[in-house]
Amino acid sequence: MGSDFGQNAYWAVILGGSSGLGLASALKLARHGYNICIVHRNSKNEMRMIQKDFEEFNQYNIKFLSFNADASRPEKRSFIISSLKEGIAGGKVRCLIHSVSKGNLKPMIGENASLQNDDFFITLQHMAINLYDWVKEMFHNDLFAPDGRVISFTSEGNKKAIKNYAAVSTAKAALEAITRNIALEFAPYGIRANCIQAGITDTRSLRMIPGNEKMKVQAINRNPFQKLTTPQDVANVVYLLCRDEASWINGAVIPVDGGESFC
């Protein structure tokens, strides 16, 4: 498939792009001509499967970079951004996607372990504040295209109480607040920022939540189309937000759930 984005050497940087929504978005953009940089954190055992997924990028006429590192550590972030700046050789990042899902799923009250202050702080750092750190450092390194897009993934837990989800819910609310302020304060520099609120999607991150099977059944019953959201459904909207025609969408939280959240 050819590029939908002209002859520009556009790049997409995906934080947490080795699976789920991040990987689906990376593959969708690659099919339409984006060069791809994926930042992920996985063990050697996990990399055997991930490498097979990464081989799919070879099918497209694009450049591909990946970094297996903790995206929240300042020294790793600086190294990756420096390497990226060298690797893209004058290209620009049109899209930064935040798909990091490192969060704590302890209950507030538990027999063996319960949620502590540190659990909130760690989850907030990885799933919310980390976005701002990356936007700021990439901006100061002049990596963004003149019409840049920042996209992050939130969930219905941003405003709905879910058992064992308190730390992640707090982080999602903070992520949305940070995204809105990026949309405001970086707008003079051509950067747009939006959140996608995906419906219940059967990803590795969902399967880590206690009671996820019940959540899936409830989501299907609620959904007007009687099915779960897929990573591809979300990736399609990421692609739409990266098109020129989406330049006037800024500071929004966009439901991508087939109507699940209003039922």
Question: Gist?
Answer:
With 263 residues, the protein is of the alpha/beta class. The chain is built from 8 helices and 7 strands. The N and C termini lie far apart (37 Å).
Structural class: alpha/beta
Using only CA atoms, what is the Rg?
A: 18 Å
Instruction: Please list the strands of the largest sheet in the order they lie side by side.
Output: 3-2-1-4-5-6-7
Cα distance, first to last residue?
37 Å
CATH homologous superfamily heading: NAD(P)-binding Rossmann-like Domain
Notes on the protein architecture:
It is a single chain. This protein has a seven-stranded parallel β-sheet with strand order 3-2-1-4-5-6-7, with helices on both faces. The radius of gyration is 18 Å and the shape is globular. It has 263 residues and is α/β, with parallel strands linked by helices. It has a single domain (10-255), classed as NAD(P)-binding Rossmann-like Domain (Rossmann fold). α3 (74-87) runs parallel beside α4 (117-140). 41% of the residues lie in helices and 18% in strands. The mean pLDDT is 92.
